[in-house]
Amino acid sequence: MTAAALPEIPIERGSANVSDAVRTEYAFVLPRGYVDGTGAVHRDGVMRLATARDEIIPQRDPRVRENEAYLTILLLSRVVTRLGTLPQVHTGVIEGLFASDLAFLQDLYRRINQEGHTQASVTCPACSHAFTVDVAGEQRLGES
User: Fold this and answer.
1) Predicted structure pTM score
2) Considering only CA atoms, which of 28, 30, 14 is closest in space to residue 102?
């Protein structure tokens, strides 16, 4: 086949807009918060999208071979990039989270990396009204 016989595919240039950009970071607010050694509570944080490397490298860690549940700790320590005013989020910080905060971060990780969003459909138990909430906590209740 010669070059002349190939169909020409039109390429639209310069049409990308802001909504086409990939969102890679998600702000969140922990339900309880991490309590550091001084007693300060850290609730506001940022989680980034996981890369293939983030999911592969922890598989080699001996702590994961010894206890598969430790994979969660390693993954979250790689993708949680900020938590309050802590200088670094490391495995010790993730290990020190309350169980409810760990479950929250696991759910957030699943939502942004598998589903691509942080919204959840919920129903009001009082009036049965269905609506969507942002589980990352980027908006406070009553805000729009």
Assistant:
1) 0.68
2) 30
